[in-house]
Write a structure and sequence with these properties.
Blueprint lengths: L4 H24 L12 H19 L3 H26 L41
Helix pairs in contact: 1-2, 2-3
Length: 129
């Protein structure tokens, strides 16, 4: 297994592509703030690098190691998605969201203390035609 310049160039291009996606996510605000989603420039660059390495290894005939790299990238994405779901179901103070509070018996879910009802506008919000 010998890497050539074209293999290194492919790995670099894959990492550069990941960095471009991560940079766009940073600029658009998808990677930071209260509604942040998975990953930014560093994570996407890393995922691009892993994908480039896996592609180069697969081309060189090292299929097992390439599959391990791809499986690691997939596990990173799944772990981040699970973390996002866990964050979604907990409040910023660390306690459970109100709609998930359990009763002392642990077999029924209690309704939240205050039900939020939207107020209806007093006037029509549609413009007159």
């Amino acid at each position: 297994m010998v890497f050539e310049l074209s293999d290194a160039l492919g790995i670099f291009i894959a990492a550069l592509g990941g960095a471009a996606v991560g940079l766009e996510r940073e600029w658009s605000g998808h990677a930071s703030g209260p509604n942040a989603r998975f990953a930014g420039i560093r994570t996407f660059t890393f995922l691009g690098l892993l994908a480039g390495l896996a592609g180069a290894l697969w081309s060189a005939g090292v299929h097992t190691l390439a599959a391990v790299f791809l499986a690691g990238a997939c596990m990173l994405i799944v772990a981040a998605s699970l973390q996002r779901l866990r964050t979604f179901f907990t409040m910023s103070s660390g306690e459970s969201a109100p709609f998930l509070k359990r009763s002392p018996r642990r077999d029924t879910v209690l309704p939240s203390a205050k039900a939020v009802t939207p107020e209806m506008p007093s006037k029509s919000v549609l413009p007159d035609v």
